[in-house]
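Structure catalogue
Derive tokens from sequence
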Amino acid sequence: MKRKKYYIIFCLLLILPVAATGCRKLVCPTNVRIEHPVRHYLPILQGDILNMFWTLYNDGPEPLVIQDVQPSCSAVQLVSEVPAVVMAGDSVVMNFHFDTDKNVSLAAHAVRIYGNIEPEGEAEMNFDVHIIPPSDDRSDYEEHFFDKLTEENVAEKRLKRNLYYTDSLSVEVLFGYTL
């Protein structure tokens, strides 16, 4: 009987430290910064693909847990793999493609990132671009889109570097140099 008591006490002493020290499961909110979150791209021909790169920086003390990335339109597609966790002080580059076949004239869209982001739990990136139909084409955008489904990736041949400008006075992004 005495031996059984010592055995139970011994087991409790082994289990108690393991149960008392566990991982912290609560992830506190963190600060995030997005490089040029509002962009105005130069006009682009309908049928081209707008290639966009956004850099997301985790400036807070906690790891950033990305729960979801939601574009506001199905024409905006996330191309790169986004890690689920971005450690404090690290950054991640996200690549998006915008298919201009589904729009005409001014297109303004947003991409929202949900996670443990201060203060509201989301970060937002906005962009707009004027989509110009080809001058010799008088068809509606729907006709143009359905015609493209039968063609072989004509837009990939016209894939080029897309320039944008922001609301700030810097022309470095647009022209590649500072004044």
